[in-house]
Design brief:
Layout (H helix, E strand, L loop, with lengths): L1 E5 L6 H17 L7 E4 L7 E4 L2 E3 L2 E8 L9 E2 H7 L2 E5 L18 H5 L5 E6 L5 E3 L3 E5 L4 E3 L3 E3 L6 E7 L11 E7 L2 H10 L2 H10 L23 H10 L6 H6 L7 H16 L6 E9 L2 E8 L2 H21 L9 H7 L6 E7 L3 E8 L2 E8 L5 E9 L3
Parallel strand pairs: 6-9
Antiparallel strand pairs: 1-17, 2-3, 3-5, 4-5, 5-15, 7-8, 8-13, 9-12, 10-11, 10-14, 11-13, 15-16, 16-20, 17-18, 18-19, 19-20
Amino acid sequence: MQRLTQRPKERKILLGLGILAAASLAAAMLGLMPHTAVTVAAGGINGWRLAEPVTYENLTIFPVVSGEAADTRGFETLDEALASGDAIVTESGHNGMRRSRDFDPGMDEQEYNEGAQVNQLVLVYHGKRPLLLLAGELLSGGKQDRIIGKDRIVAVGARPLPLDVFCVEHGRWSNSDKFTASTIIVHPSVRERAAVDQEQGGVWEAVRSGSTATESRGAASGAPAAAPPAFSQQRIENEISTTAPTESYDKIYNSPSSGVPVSSFTDEVQRRFERATSGIKDGAVVGVVIAYGGEVAWSDVFASPALFQRYWPKLLRSYVVEALSRPQTHEHASLDDAQEFLQHLDGRENTESEPGVYRWTEITQGHYVEISLESLQPVQVKLHWLKIHRTD
């Protein structure tokens, strides 16, 4: 693995203004109203447009539209690979047990005797297409449920490799060894702790607290007081004491007995999203920008509409869980807010790469983090782009 750290780059102000001006002129020439579709100077394959937002309760989703798409059929997702048997994920073996900096002193010493590691699994991949992994994807089973710690690509023919993960089931350490597909990606507060902080204690804290957002930073002055979140701290504690004694993420946030309307909320947003995006012309949806109340907080954008659709069901559910974990406010972010969110950062850049396979890049600037995953073979293309407004 190669690592590179660069100092902040100079912002190319004149170029950015020129792109925005050209985009605005093109929209005017086409007779588009300002809030029909906005072209933004923010990467993508051929530039991105924002379609009209979809709003329900405290959640607003801005579809990201592109006029071009990469051919992403040559990549396999984690859920597909686990379901087909192309990928096998197991606990690590007896040879490399070590105490990590995030070890919980209250954890049973049996885990050391058995040689497994909380924050590392083993992945064996036999597939014929490169395997795409996204931070926050849940692996069900083993001694404890885990989530993928970082976006990456696994090459065809790769040797068995150590896989960095984080535990999302604090109280179980069983004799099970293998993992299965869960079709779950954890909600943004938990996903942020894994993808950005890379710290086990923070992941556990986010699972137990619901949302790590401490306040509604987008709230306007004089706005009505927000209602308490559906996934309140008390409700989560009750769920842990009854149906989720091992603090399993899956059981806390996907249990019908919790009384939180995750499924109905998700179904309603999906109906509105389909209706809003069905008439889009000259392009298709490749991603979304997400806002909670008045705060634009998250964005997932992919290299093609097809790849976006493969992840959309579990991404949508994760956004809904986050919405239900935050105070219920009816304030909404604007299209201009979402457009500004899509702008690239000019902060400190860290890069990791596996030659001939992928390049992972993280840019941090203030409270914002931008992460991109680029495939180098069989085609060079930016497969996934993620931007986060940090909750702390």
